[in-house]
Design goal:
206 residues; alpha+beta; Gyrase A, domain 2; five-stranded antiparallel β-sheet; 19% helix; 34% strand; SoxG; TrmE/GcvT-like; Sarcosine oxidase subunit gamma
């Protein structure tokens, strides 16, 4: 295989060509927003079979020590667990794709599992101005009275379909969009964050 062809098929970040590590936007003072690229994490859609919700709940608890989240909730521990996505549907999240490889076999007959690791782009948005930045475009109320740590929403941000979940009260959010919309979403996100100054960093390698 030629070097050119090998390079063409090399793994590529969903944010490649868009995100540049370092400080951007307003340069005075401490950056108000941190954008952490979540490349390499594992994602999989889990859709329960009719009448199998109790069986799935038991499986995720016994085999993985997870809790099956109620609507609008995310149950994660150290970046691993489940995020509710729709009725009867969840997004499994883990540090790596390999950590989710056994899900299809484990859930056979109970739920359908589809790998989404390469299909979505995920960025972690944190810092004192993170909520304000997202509120410029998100179609749900992120005020602490309405949206807190452990909650999730499948919504739109700047007219782009997205799912976000809040991890803590800093606040910190993970935002997932379809990979094909990564460039458009990044353009909006960085424009929204520029007035506060933002740091872009690569997430930890696993």
């Amino acid at each position: 295989m030629s070097e050119a062809i090998a390079s063409m098929w090399a793994p590529r970040s969903a944010w490649a060509g868009y995100a540049k590590p370092g400080r951007h936007g307003r340069t005075q003072g401490e950056a108000g927003v941190r954008l952490t690229l979540r490349d390499g994490i594992g994602l999989a859609t889990v859709i329960v079979a009719d009448g199998q919700t109790d069986a799935l709940r038991a499986l995720v608890s016994e085999r993985y020590g997870w809790t099956l989240p109620e609507p609008g909730r995310a149950q994660l521990f150290r970046d691993r667990g489940l995020v509710w996505s729709a009725p009867g549907q969840w997004l499994a999240v883990a540090e790596t794709r390999e950590a989710l490889r056994d899900l299809p076999q484990a859930f056979r007959g109970v739920a359908a599992v589809t790998d989404q690791s390469d299909g979505r782009a995920v960025v972690r948005v944190s810092g004192r101005n993170a909520r304000t930045v997202l509120e410029k475009g998100v179609a749900v109320d992120l005020h602490p009275r309405a949206f807190q740590a452990g909650q999730t929403a499948a919504t739109s941000i700047a007219h782009i379909g997205a799912q976000l979940w809040q991890l803590d009260d800093v606040p910190t959010y993970d935002v997932a969009v379809a990979r094909s919309f990564a460039g458009s979403f990044w353009s909006w996100l960085t424009e929204a964050a520029a007035e506060f100054g933002y740091e872009v960093e690569q997430g930890p390698a696993h």
